[in-house]
Specification:
Helices cover about 45% and strands about 15% of the residues. The chain is an alpha+beta fold. The chain has 2 domains: about 35 residues; about 110 residues, Gyrase A, domain 2, CATH 3.30.1360. The strands form 2 sheets. Strands 3, 4, 5, 6 and 7 form a 5-stranded antiparallel β-sheet that branches. A two-stranded antiparallel ribbon has the order 1-2. The protein is elongated. Belongs to the pterin-4-alpha-carbinolamine dehydratase family. One of its GO terms (molecular function) is 4-alpha-hydroxytetrahydrobiopterin dehydratase activity.
């Protein structure tokens, strides 16, 4: 009696499942005969033309991200000013990915000061829409908080870092000058009103 009940439950469970079958570990839909994938791309990466089109259409949101030669990876480079904070940055990126995308971004550290972050969809061995969404989420993070300086290319990163530091220093000096000018101006206006 117990075995009949288990067999009945198992059979009814199978009937309620989505009708599909597995062929060499690839899920195939009965309806269309195409691979099912969570990326809704039939198990294929985005075509290079589509990748270029998407990147151009959202270029403001994926600023700093580069494509590799065959357009199967999104890559971004950072200079690390504080190693511990860079590790925290990677933890936070992993948390964002785990909660939203589950694509497992790749990263590498070179010379303890150059971080390379690489996004792609491993099951597709190429790019999907999720990779662009993750790139946008990463761009929303405050890089100053992690003491990271974004760089364009790793070949001349030291020069780029110098330029970024000089720019930041100039901005601080400019802000200090504006604050000092405003203080002096306010003081002068108060004195002229009293006189």
């Amino acid at each position: 009696m117990f075995l009949r009940r288990v067999a009945y439950l198992y059979k009814s469970f199978q009937n309620t499942q989505k009708q599909s079958f597995s062929f060499f570990n690839n899920q195939i839909s009965d309806k269309y005969g195409k691979k099912c994938c969570r990326y809704h791309q039939d198990g294929k990466p985005l075509a290079p033309q589509k990748v270029e089109q998407i990147k151009n259409s959202i270029s403001d949101f994926v600023k700093g991200w580069n494509l590799n030669e065959d357009k199967t990876r999104l890559i971004r480079y950072f200079y690390i000013e504080d190693y511990i904070m860079a590790v925290q940055f990677l933890k936070d990126v992993a948390k964002i990915d785990a909660l939203n995308f589950q694509n497992c971004p790749s990263f590498s550290l070179q010379k303890g000061e150059l971080l390379t972050l690489e996004l792609y969809s491993p099951p597709l061995n190429g790019l999907s829409q999720l990779d662009f969404q993750l790139a946008m989420k990463i761009n929303e993070m405050n890089l100053d908080e992690y003491f990271l300086i974004p760089i364009e290319k790793p070949e001349d990163y030291k020069r780029q870092v110098q330029m970024a530091k000089m720019k930041k220093q100039n901005e601080l000096i400019q802000k200090q000058l504006e604050d000092d000018f405003n203080k002096i101006n306010n003081k002068f206006q108060k004195e002229s009103q009293q006189a």
